[in-house]
Structure formats: C-alpha cells, structure tokens
## 1
Amino acid sequence: MNLTSPFSISIFVITGLAFLGLPIGLSMMTGSVLYLFLVGADMGTVAEQFLNGMYSNYVILSVPLFILAAEFMNIGSMTERLLAFCNVLVGRFRGGLAQVNVVQSIIFAGMSGSAVADAAGSGRMMQNMMTRDDRYPASYAAALTAVTSVIGPIIPPSIPMIVYALVSDASIGYLFLAGMVPGLLMAGLQMVQVAYDARRRNFPVEAPVPLKEIPRITWRAFPALMMPVLLLGCIYSGVTTPTEAAALAAAYALLVSVVIYRSISWGAFYDSLLLSAKSSTSIGMLIAGALVFNYVVTIENIPDGLRVLLTGWELTPTTFLILVNIVLLLLGCVLEGTAILLIIVPVFIPTAQALGIDMVHFGVVVVINIMLGLVTPPYGLLLFIMTNISGVPVRHIIRDALPFIGGMFLCLILITFIPDLVLWLPRLMGYQG
C-alpha cells in the first residue's frame, strides 16, 4: 500500500485523531472528508451519504428505542422484582446468589439488547447483594456481573445484531432467533463454572424462599416477565417489525413502571430520557461516521480487493471463519464493538458470501467475538464499568473473570464449527439458509 496515497493519509488521520481522544465517529468523518478533498470529489458527498444512510434505514430507529426501554426498566422497580423472582428459581443452591446473577442476565437479555445497559442496570444491585455481609469477594461479584452481561446482546433482542443487519442485509428476525441457542449455551457454561466455584470456594447457601411466598413474588414480577414474551411474540408472529417492537418495548416498560408499579418520579423520567438521548447520540455519530467512511472504502474497492486476495489463498469456509475469529478477537481487545461492526465486518462480508457462508451464522459468530471483546483486556468496557461500580482494581476482576472467558471461548468454538447450533431454530421457523 502506498503510504502517501489519499486513502493511507485518511487512515493515518482517523487513527491519530482517535488516539488523541476524538470520538471515533468524528474521527472517521474528518478522515473521510480529507480523503474526498484529496481526490477532488464533491464535498457534498459526505452529507449525501450520511442522510441516505441514516434516513433510508428504518431499522436504525430501533437502537434508541431499545436503549430507552432499558432506561425505563432501570428507574422503575422492574429490576428488583425480577431479581427476587430469580432468587426463587436458583437462590437456594450453594452459590445461589451467583446463580441468580446468571439467570437475571438471561431474563434481562429479552428486554434491553445491550450488555452495557444490563451491567449498569442490574450490576450495582447484584454487586451490593453479593458483597453484603462479605458473602462473596467483591472482585468475584464484579467479574461475574461483567461476564453475564454479555448474554444480553446474544439472546434477542440485540442491538449489535441490529447493527450487523444494517451492514449485511441479513434478516433481523432470523438473527434474533439464531442467537437464542448460543446465548443459552453460554449461560449454561457460566452456571456450571459458578457451581464449580461455589464448591471449591465454599460460597454460602442462601435461606430458601418459603413456599407461601413464591406465588406472591412471582405475581409481583409477572408484568416484567411478560415484556420479552410480548416483544418477541410480536416480532415472530408478524404483528410488528423489530423497530415497531422496540417502540412497543419502551412503551410497555414505561406503562408497567408508572401504572402498575408506580415507581417512577418526574425527575427519574427526565433523567432516563436524557441518558437515552446521550447514548443514542453517541451511537448515531458512530454510525454516521461509519457510513461516510464505508463510502470511501467502497471507492477504494477494498472489500473486493480483500475478497480476491483471500480467494487467492484458497481458504475454505472453516479456515476463513478461524481467520475472522482471530482478527476480531485481537481487534476487540483495543476497539469498541460497534466500530468493529461498522468498519471491519463489512470488509469481510463479500468474502464470506463468496465462500457460501450463511450470513445469519456469520452474524452470530461476529457478535459473540465482539461480546468477548467487552470483557477482554486491555479495553474491556464491561470490566471498567464494574471497576467503577465495585471500586475493585481491574486486575482483580480480570483474574476472577478468566475462567468464565474460557467458557465463552469454548462457546465461540462450538458455534463456529457447528453451524447447526446457530441455524437450527431459524430453520425451524422457516429460514431457508
């Protein structure tokens, strides 16, 4: 590659600005504008690509709506009631509170679609519950919350899968279905690890919930438990699109918290709108920057060039997937997940299609790689979130998270080499891939 070419200069500018602390979305816009200036293209192309990309993709609207739904859940008492219900299910076993942490992530996965939202929403509460009276080491509680939060974007709904659908044209509905089995497999491996740790480290056994209390606790949690049923039922019955279902989820979370639980104040409502707007703006700027930069990549014919190069290597679908796993795992250590989805993954998609790799299977492999990046040092966004919540040094959290990360790697290996684990449920619902 010519280091003085417009594209090379654009890459250097984007990388340099990102390292200096400029948001990656703005860095990509700046580098793309510079590229267009250097090649003498129409500068209005930036606005054209931005507007066409943002306003012609109806699915993008579901991202802020799912974020808003998660915020409404967090400010209401839905989280507390769901945790109490989870305690009924698994709290009585040794290490029961740790098992509750895994189960609540499975349930929350059907509501928010965001690992960060799950960690920030229930993470503080689980941290307090597990460390009260020194039941569990603070580092273990923080590590467990970090690794269980990655289940959220794998089990539907999933914001990363929505972003992947944006760049790949894969069906969101079938992507959501494809994440179900891998997400439950990952949760099962985490529960096995918790059970092993509980016996090895002699974690406490919680007092069992009296039988007479179980119906009351279940009834109090029932409206919250119906949210994923309503959400996924509307999507797969064809009543709503995923974007309309996201709006329905936000409306339902607000309705339950205000009318049934009566647990939201005007101040909390305003704060949730503000936080949702900030998060949505951050993601929106990243998407906008990626849309413009992807136009530059298309002009340079990078995807086709890579496809020709990799085809020359005579890669099989399996060796290609192994290569993608290695690249994404390495990038996940230093880059934010949405940036990988918007910048790196589109470059791989033409080669994957040429090799006959199913786009739904490929999407789940990509998303799990990105979720691993959230708990893999040195970036590990979830590790830093739990450091802030728990006050525990990140190196201690990493130490306790490593066995769980190993289980996640095992899950990634299984779904990479056994596509039927991913595609079985979509095919059951009519997918022809």
## 2
Amino acid sequence: MATSSIIQFLSFSLLLFLCSSFAQTSFRPKALVVPVTKHAPTLQYLTTINQRTPLVPVSLVVHLGGEFLWVDCDNNYVSSSYRPVRCRSAQCSLATKNTACGDCFSGPRPGCNNNTCGVFPHNPITRTSTSGELAEDVVSVKSTNGFNPGKAAEVSRFIFSCAPTSLLEGLANGAVGMAGLGRTRVGVPSQFSAAFSFHRKFAVCLSSSTGVIFFGDGPYHFLQNVEASQLLTYTPLLINPVSTAGVFTAGTPSADYFIGVKSIQVEDKAVALNTSLLKIDSQGNGGTKISTVDPYTILETSIFKAVTKAFIKAAAARNITRVAAVKPFEVCFSPDNVLATRLGASVPWITLVLQGQSASWTITGSNSMVDLRDSGKNALCLAVLDGGVEPRTSIVIGGYQLENNLLQFDLATSRLGFSSTLLGRQTTCANFNFTSNA
C-alpha cells in the first residue's frame, strides 16, 4: 500500500472512531436525506439541517467543494451542547494541518474561546475567507430507506466551524452558513458515513425548484417508479493535488470534485480543443470540476469559443436564428423555430466524453438553454459562460447543468456515478417523496 493510501486509511479510521463514539448508538440508519431548494434571486441551492441544543433548523447554502460546514456564530448562536475544539486535539488534526492556536479577547462564547483550533471558512460567492473557531455540536437529520424520510438520526458532536456574520455576504436571505460536502475528513458526507458506519457515498439531485441530497448508498427512489441508482454511468473522480480553497496549507489537496473530460462533442462531432487544458497540471491548474455555487458552466476562453462556434453552426443547420446577447450570456437564439420536447428545447446536444468505459455525459436542451421569455426577453440562451484566459480551472460544470441529473459521489472507490437527465424517465429531482415517513 502506498504511503499516501496508508495515511488516508489511518485518517479515516481515526474519523470513524471519533464520530462513531459521538453518534447515537441506539439507532444506526443506512442512509440519510435532506431537502434542497433553489433560491431564485441568487440561483443558490439551500438545504436545512437541525443543529444545537435545543435543536433549531439551520438554512445552509450547498457547497459541493466546501471543506466543512460553517455557520455564523456571532448572531444568536445559542446551544448548551456547543464545544470548542482545542488546539492540537485529534479533531483539530482531522480538520487542518495548521498548528496555530486561536485565542479570544472577550468573554467566552460560541466562536470565541481560548486555546482553540483555528480554521478558515470560505465564502466562494464573494471569494472571501476569514478565521474561524473549530467546534462541535449536535446535528440531526432524517434517515431514509431511499423511498421516504424516516426518523431523525443525531450526531452529538458534529465538527463544524464558526464564522463571523460578515462572511454571510452574498448568500441567500435566511442562510446562516454553508454545508461543505467536499472531499475532506470533516466534510459533511465523511462525518455522516463515519458516525453511522454506512457507505462513504452521497448523492445530489438538484432542480429549479426542490431537490434532495442522500448520504449513504441507494436506493434513490423518485416518483414514477424510478430507482435512479440503477441509471448510473461511472467515471473516476480525480484528485487535484493543490487546494482550491481560499486559504490553505501547502501540500493540501483540493476538496473539490474533479473529473476527467477527454473531449467535447456537439451533435456527435468532436470540437477541436487544446487538450492540455483538460488535464490538471502540477500547480493544480486546469481540469474539470463540478460546482453547486457557480450557477452556469464556465469554460476557459479558447474552449468557450470552440464550443460556442460549433453550437452556433449546428443550430444554424436547424434553422435556429441567433439573436443579440443577453447578459450574462453571450450566445442567444430566437425561440421561434425551436420545438419544446420532454428533454427541453430541441437544440444541438453537447456531450462530455469522460474517462471510463463508454462514459459520456449528454447535455440536452433542458440543461443547456435558459428560457428568458418569462423575464420579457424573447430569447433562449446557451447557459455557458466565458471564464477568461488562464483560469484556475478550465471547465467548471455549474448548477444549471446538474439539475435533474442524479450524481453519486463514491468517496471509497473515488468514482462519480451520473444518470444524465431524469426527464427522459418522466421524473425529476423534485420528485422525491418528502411527505410520508418510512
């Protein structure tokens, strides 16, 4: 076993020991479920968990690549079960390589205690990081059998970070922090799987209205009798060796989820690209990551130009007329000659050819075109943005492209399962039954 694999195994074993000790021992769910709603003004995805003693509902922005859960502790954080994580403790070593100890120069309160473990919660919307106290408190979410929500499952000492109220800038109204689902030992998925000893997997299914996140293995059952875990195609999850967090210690890998795009096709025709941009270099630049905090897919400039040129040409062959750009979109079309189908607007399909046997992610009109007619603009716009020259990441697959696609992140085997659009199965990510108890 390679040294890095041994370290990873020992680290997770420590997490398993710590979290298993703090979970309720009387109830061991096989999986957990939380709801997701899309906040239209900000295009952010929100989930709700119960935290603290007594339990209160906490609204959080879903951050797929976030290192950990963080919340505002300055404003009305009241809990009898709050515990600051001490400097150089086992919990601190799970969360950070940083050995600095934090002190507080006012009376002790949540977020402000002496000799505590310091971390750096990050807001990717404003690209702001700040110092924060690592802490533990009760977290409770619903269990699931894959069909319905069941009884609540509780972790009594869930690791998270406090943050100042100022870090909430740019977040949806009502949000008091972010749920970090990233590839770390204290990310939300890792803590839940360790606490309840279920599979190190989680699945995300977003929509323009409501959606769902599962922690643990399937089934993932949606109305119309669709068991989405049976629809998955798999591709490896890649590790970016350089952190993409706002503040990090040298040698820390990225918590974001990267996949290997080998090529891009429009109408089954390969687009000519600089393929070196599709790889992650030794400095952590390039490659493709999946994001829930970027509303639309972002492409490096040369990739953007090549893909949009091919798309415009294929659309013209269908007699689809291009119209003036509507910010933030650069490529827009008249809806007059575009048929509406079950899979969205009838436009050229975009396909990401991925690593893995016959792994290709097809983006149909439902995930490629934004219909602006409800906002008074007679236009359908391609939901792809120009990311500029030399961005940190060459391709960022944004939230709009994820909607009504089930994505399963398997941390143990380092692979992504993706369903492609569920619309072809006559269901959506809004069709998980939250109304009945298992």
## 3
Amino acid sequence: MATASVLMADAFEIQPCTPHRRVIRDEGAHAVIGVSVGNGCFSAGRLHDLARWGLEHFGRVDLVCADLYVAEMYEAFGYPPGEARRKAAKSLRGVRAKVRNAVTAAEPDGARLRRQPMSRFRADAAYQEIHRRLWRQLDEDDDFRALCDDLVGRFLSARGEAAEARQRAVCLEYVCAELPLFLDAPAILRLPSSLVCYHQRLPMAELPYGRGAGLRASRNQGRAIVTPAAPSHTANSK
C-alpha cells in the first residue's frame, strides 16, 4: 500500500493512508474524529485540542464516541456480567462528558461541530445497508472471513490477550459496527466527502483501502492517522 507523506497542521501530524485520501484531506469538507472508550489517549485536554483543530481545518466535524459493545467487550475479557455493565456505564459517562465539554467549549452554537455516539447511526438506512453488506460478505466470502479472523487475532494479540472464541466473536461485532464509517461516512452523514481520523493504525480499518480484500471504501471516503506534533514541529507548521 502506498503511503502519503506526513502533513503538518498546527498541533497535529496528519498522515493520510494513500495519495488520493490526501486529496480528500485537502478538500476539508468533513472529518470524523473517532473517540474510544477506556483509552487514556483521549484526555479532556486532547479532546479540546482535537475539537479546535477540526474546526480550523474542516467545514464540518463529528466527534464520534465508539459506544457499542463496550460491556460485551469487558465481559469477554473476564469481568462478571454485572461488573462489566457497571464498568462500561462508568467509562461511557466519563468519555461522553469529556466529548460534550470539548464540543461546547470549541463551538457553543454547534453549527459545524457535533458529538455523535456510534449507536445513533444504527437507525440510519445507509449505515444499515453497509452493515448488512459487510456481514453478508463475511458469511459468503471464505477468503474475506479468514482475513478478518486473522486481523481480529492480531488486534487481540496487540492487547496481550489470548484470542479465545468469545473474545474473537465480540471483537468482530465491535469492529464491524465501526467499519461502515470507514467505508462510506459521506453516505451515512449526507456529505460530499469525509476523512475518518484516529490516533493509530487499526488493522481492521486497513481492509477498505487495501487490495484484494473484497471490501472497498467509497471514492470520497478517506482515513488518516492524526497524532500530536512534536513541539519543534508545531512552531513551524503554519
């Protein structure tokens, strides 16, 4: 896979995954900024910075909280059901509050900046169709299923977890709930183009942009890795 050069923009480094996706970044129509639950990278300060950065460089921005299958993931990794639900509820309250505060501080009137839970998209017809197509391909395409299973195993291994059957099943559901945004956020959000931003590479998110996987992102869908710039870079980024 070709990799575009890193773009410097204020306090963050932006690395689009291909040269074409760099064009989408330069258009600046829209960004989805993904926010994970239970991830220490998403401090209150980081979310405030990301909200301001998004408004400076994109016409519209959605901070999307990955709020699906959180309790199920905790349970799959060994928490008793009741404790898993309580831990998920506490984690979700915390991250929702931080996202809400960041959005309100950056743009009180909410004209261009929104906070969105991933769960809200499940009622959207475009999301539902992409999600159905994804699971249909998993059922019908053995090569694609094997690739997804391998990537889930790598994801779990990176967490230092043994890839047990229950963990693999929940992880696959969690990832497939998020993949529609990597495939066609413009269709789901009714926008001309969109760049999905996250702070690290996600193995499953590579699928829509690779070759031979049987799964393709739309031409107006981009993905980028967005990380804080080194202090020496920030001063020279303008």
